[in-house]
Design goal:
alpha/beta, four-stranded parallel β-sheet, single chain, 424 residues
C-alpha cells in the first residue's frame, strides 16, 4: 500500500492498531483471490483497489472535501444514492465486514448483536477505518432494530440522519417513503448548501441507473447454463467495491468486466470445470472483506453464480424512471424503485421468496445455500418460509449460520462439501 500515513494521522486514526489490519489484509486477499486460476484480466482494477483500499478512495474523498464537497456514509441499499449525488456530495457504504472491528463494537453493544453492526461501530470508535473518519454525515434507516440502537450510539460521535423505512408495501407506504426521500433531499441541501433541482436529480438518476445496468450485465453473464465465466468471489468483490467507488467509474469498470465475460461465454472460457454445481447464495449481506463463505463453497467443488442479498441482486435490480417532470415525480419514482427491494424487514415478504425462486431458474442453479449472520433474527426467522418454498420447488437447500470468525470454517466446509456431494 502506498504511503498514506499522514492522511491517516490527519484523520485522527489509531495508526498503530490500523497497521495490524493493513498487515493482515494483503495475505488474506492473496490467499483467497490471487490463488485462483484463469481470473478475468479486468479484475486487475479491483485487485488494485483492495491493495489501496484505505488510501486511494479516501484520498479522493478528502480532496473533494477540500473543494467544499461533503461525504455521506450509508449502511443500507434503501438510502437513495441519487439524492446524495444530486446534492453534489460523495457517498460511501460503511458496513463493517471484518472480525478485526468486532471487539471494538462489543464495548458498546451486547455480544449477541449482529457482527456487521458490531464491526461498524468498532470501525468508527476504534478509529481504524478512514471511511468512518471522513464522513460529514451518516445516514441510517429503520430496517434493523440492532442498527437503530447503534445509530443512537454513533450519533454521540458523528452527525446522524435517520430515514424511517416503512415495513409494508401498500400504496400509503410507497407514498411515505417518497415523503422520506423528499425530507432527506432537504437535509442534503442543508448539509451541502446546494439546491437539488429536477434536472440535477434526473441526471443523478441516470448516473446511478448506468451503474446498475453495468452490474446487471455482469450478473447476466453468470446466468449462462453452460459456462461460468467468473467466480462468485470475484463477482462479490465487484459488488463490495461498488458501494464506495465513484458511480461513473464503477459503471465504466463493471462494463469492462461484462465485456470480457460476454466474450468468455462466446469462447467457452470458464473458471470452473464442466459440471461444477451452481449455487444460489441468499440471505444477509457480505460486507468487505467478508469472503469466507464464498471461498469455502468455491473450494468445495461448487461455484456461486448469484447472490440474492444486498451485496448482490438487491443492489442493482430495477431501475428508477428517468426524465421526471417535477421533483415530487422524481421522489415518487425513487420510492417505487427502492420499495421493490425485498428485504426481510418487510411483512409480509412473499416478494423475496418469489425472487429466490425466479433467480434459481434464471441462473440455472443446482442448489441454494441460505446464509444468516448470527443474531440477525429477521433473516433467521424468514428462513423457515424460504426453505419451505424452496423444498416445494424441488430445489436442494442448505441453511447456514455464521459470523466473521474462522472458528467455524472447517465445520462449514464439512457441511458444504456434503451438500455439494448430495447434489450429485
Amino acid at each position: 500500500m502506498s504511503d498514506y500515513l499522514q492522511m491517516w494521522k490527519d484523520l485522527d486514526m489509531d495508526v498503530e492498531t490500523h497497521d495490524m489490519l493493513c498487515q493482515v489484509l494483503p495475505t488474506a486477499f492473496g490467499d483467497t483471490f490471487l490463488s485462483m486460476e484463469n481470473r478475468p484480466e479486468s479484475m486487475g482494477f479491483y485487485d488494485f483497489v483492495v491493495s489501496e483500499i484505505h488510501g486511494i478512495r479516501p484520498s479522493e474523498m478528502i480532496a473533494a472535501q477540500k473543494e467544499g464537497k461533503k461525504v455521506v456514509g450509508t449502511f443500507c441499499v434503501y438510502v437513495p444514492d441519487e439524492v446524495i449525488n444530486a446534492a453534489g456530495a460523495l457517498f460511501s457504504g460503511l458496513c463493517g465486514g471484518s472480525q478485526f472491528w468486532v471487539p471494538g463494537g462489543e464495548k458498546y453493544l451486547p455480544k449477541n448483536t449482529c457482527p456487521l453492526v458490531k464491526a461498524s461501530l468498532g470501525a468508527r470508535f476504534d478509529r481504524t477505518c478512514p471511511f468512518f473518519r471522513i464522513v460529514d454525515l451518516i445516514v441510517g434507516e429503520t430496517t434493523c432494530d440492532a442498527k437503530k440502537k447503534a445509530y443512537e450510539i454513533l450519533g454521540e460521535d458523528v452527525p446522524m440522519y435517520i430515514m424511517d423505512m416503512p415495513q409494508m408495501k401498500r400504496d400509503i407506504d410507497i407514498q411515505k417513503w417518497a415523503d422520506e426521500i423528499k425530507a432527506f433531499a432537504a437535509k442534503m441541501e442543508e448539509l451541502t448548501g446546494n439546491t437539488i433541482t429536477v434536472d440535477g436529480l434526473n441526471d443523478a438518476i441516470k448516473t446511478i441507473n448506468a451503474k446498475r445496468k453495468a452490474l446487471a450485465r455482469i450478473f447476466d453473464a453468470r446466468k449462462n447454463a453452460d459456462n461460468i465465466p467468473i467466480s462468485g468471489l470475484d463477482a462479490l468483490l465487484i459488488m463490495q467495491i461498488a458501494f464506495f467507488d465513484d458511480p461513473a467509474r464503477c459503471a465504466e469498470m463493471a462494463n469492462k468486466v461484462a465485456d470480457e465475460l460476454e466474450q468468455r461465454n462466446k469462447d467457452g472460457v470458464s473458471v470452473f470445470p464442466a459440471g461444477t454445481k451452481r449455487i444460489l447464495l441468499t440471505g444477509t449481506p457480505l460486507a468487505i472483506p467478508n469472503w469466507k463463505l464464498h471461498h469455502i463453497i468455491e473450494t468445495s467443488g461448487a461455484a456461486v453464480v448469484c447472490e440474492e442479498m444486498c451485496t448482490g441482486t438487491r443492489y442493482f435490480e430495477n431501475l428508477v424512471e428517468e426524465d421526471n417532470a417535477t421533483l415530487d415525480d422524481a421522489y415518487m419514482a425513487l420510492s417505487k424503485r427502492y420499495m421493490k427491494n425485498n428485504c426481510s424487514c418487510f411483512t409480509p415478504n412473499q416478494g423475496r421468496i418469489d425472487d429466490i425462486l425466479r433467480m434459481a431458474k434464471e441462473y440455472n442453479v443446482d442448489g441454494i445455500i441460505d446464509t444468516n449472520l448470527k443474531f440477525c433474527c429477521l433473516y433467521d426467522t424468514e428462513r423457515r418460509n424460504v426453505e419451505k418454498a424452496v423444498n416445494e420447488a424441488g430445489i436442494p437447500f442448505l441453511g447456514i449460520e455464521t459470523d466473521y470468525t474462522d472458528s467455524d470454517a472447517e465445520q462449514l466446509r464439512t457441511r458444504i462439501e456434503a451438500f455439494v456431494e448430495m447434489l450429485g
